[in-house]
Amino acid sequence: MTPFKCLLPSTIVYGPGKANELGALLAGEHILFISDKGVQGAGVADSVLAACREGAASFSEYWDVPPEPTEEQVEVVAAAVDRPGLSVIVAMGGGSVMDMAKFVSVMVQGGPSMVDMFEGRLPAGKQVKLVMIPTTAGTGSEATPNSIALRPALNLKVGVVCPYFMPDYVVLDPELLCGLPPHITAATGLDALCHALECFVSNKANPISDMFALESMRLTFKSLQKAYENGKDIEARGDTLLAAFYGGVCIASSGTNAVHALSYPLGGRYRIPHGVSNAILLAPAFAYNMDACMAKLAQVAELAAASRGESLAGKSEQQRAQYLVDFLAALTRNLKIPASLEELGIPASDLDWLVDAAFEVKRLLNNNPKPLGKTDIRTIYTSILTRKC
Ligand SMILES: NC(=O)c1ccc[n+]([C@@H]2O[C@H](COP(=O)([O-])OP(=O)(O)OC[C@H]3O[C@@H](n4cnc5c(N)ncnc54)[C@H](O)[C@@H]3O)[C@@H](O)[C@H]2O)c1
Ligand SMILES: [Fe+2]
């Protein structure tokens, strides 16, 4: 029996237009609305803003969250928005906005600094409630007690896990994603797939994460390509939002591993978007892991095959696991993810640095179903150094 613990947001609301119904929830609150320029440009925030303002005791807005923020940028935003009495932060955006909101919610009103939190001095309690409205379908940050910032001094993304980061109220509204550009749909959707698949094979996998992971992957296989090809397909957008949320639930009780560990140095040093740096590693990392989690990969292969109307009847476990690895490679190709580090401008001469940096991401490497030494990490990076068709 696998013991587990799983935190979940208190309330989850799902459906087109649901983000416009926040007024009653927020009445009488002192609200900070936080988002970024991409969401502002997409023109999807107006009715949400109106709902926030409706009965608020006070209201302020902040639109300058940078993509994939550094710890210094989080400090700047926390100082800019701090004010006495703040009671709710409404975060509307992708993982960058949601993670920023999580950090800021505990830093205001005399809370810890970023360095405090990176060094394990976490806040003593929760002062400010968190309402999350994801506008990408990827990170699952709306379902996790995790938040990530870039630490430029280390050239690494670093995560902080704190129970007070868990959102109180989550709105999954597929209408908000209809203008999300295809390349962001692809990268973020594959991030969600990484969360589900890594958590499914993780050393920390458990009955809750397995259940959410399988459904998350089924929805991604069914609908990510559709959402990529037709952003206005509301059913497909809804499926990808659920897939991402379920992936977040997996992270909250299980844990990502090889893909995310090797991805962090790519994001940290070369500022490659999180979804892209994961997606490029997805098939190679699972080719490496295959013999250590064959039965589980064979199980996922059935979902992948069903999404294409294919049958794997009569195939061995190994053939089914290989089918999945090939399927993942084809999916990332179809979604136009760069195929190599070379394409991302990363030279072979940086390989030693990459290997050493990834080897330090022990928090995630320890979750991998197969031990990863420096030679193994080098093998995986080497397999994506130059373009392969
Ligand atoms: N906390 C967690 O559990 C967790 C998990 C995975 C990743 N992350 C973090 O999340 C961040 C990445 O988040 P992301 O992948 O969602 O990307 P993002 O939040 O950086 O957004 C990517 C781009 O999409 C734009 N955008 C967002 N929604 C849009 C919409 N509806 N229409 C048009 N444009 C839109 C944004 O403005 C931005 O330019 C990274 O910092 C990563 O480390 C956190
Ligand atoms: Fe991720």
From the structure above, extract its key features.
single chain, 389 residues, alpha/beta, Rossmann fold, 2 domains, two-stranded antiparallel ribbon, 16 helices, 8 strands, binds fe (ii) ion
What is the name of the CATH architecture of the largest domain?
Up-down Bundle
Structural class assignment:
alpha/beta
Number of strands: 8
> What is bound: which ligands?
nicotinamide-adenine-dinucleotide, fe (ii) ion
Q: What Rg is obtained from the alpha carbons, in whole angstroms?
A: 20 Å
Query: Percent helix among the residues?
Result: 40-55%
Mean pLDDT: 96
Q: CATH superfamily assignment of the largest domain?
A: Dehydroquinate synthase-like - alpha domain
**Distance linking N and C termini:** 43 Å
Poorly predicted runs: none
| Number of self-contained structural domains | 2
CATH class of the largest domain: Mainly Alpha
Order of helices and strands: EHEHHEHEHHEEEEHHHHHHHHHH
CATH topology of the largest domain: Dehydroquinate synthase-like, alpha domain
Count of individual helical segments: 16
Shape: globular
**Strand order of the main beta sheet, please?**
1-8-5-4-2-3
Strand content is: 5-15%
For the largest beta-sheet, the strand count, sense and barrel status come to: 6 strands, parallel
Describe this structure in words.
With 389 residues, this protein is α/β, with parallel strands linked by helices. The chain has 16 helices and eight strands. The chain folds into two domains: 11-176, Rossmann fold (3-Layer(aba) Sandwich), CATH 3.40.50.1970; 181-383, Up-down Bundle (Dehydroquinate synthase-like, alpha domain), CATH 1.20.1090. 50% of the residues lie in helices and 11% in strands. The chain is globular. The termini are far apart. Bound molecules: nicotinamide-adenine-dinucleotide and fe (ii) ion (FE2). Nicotinamide-adenine-dinucleotide is lined by residues 36, 38-39, 42, 44, 67-68, 93-97, 99, 135-136, 138-141, 144, 146-148, 157, 176-177, 179-180, 184, 188, 191, 251, 274-275.
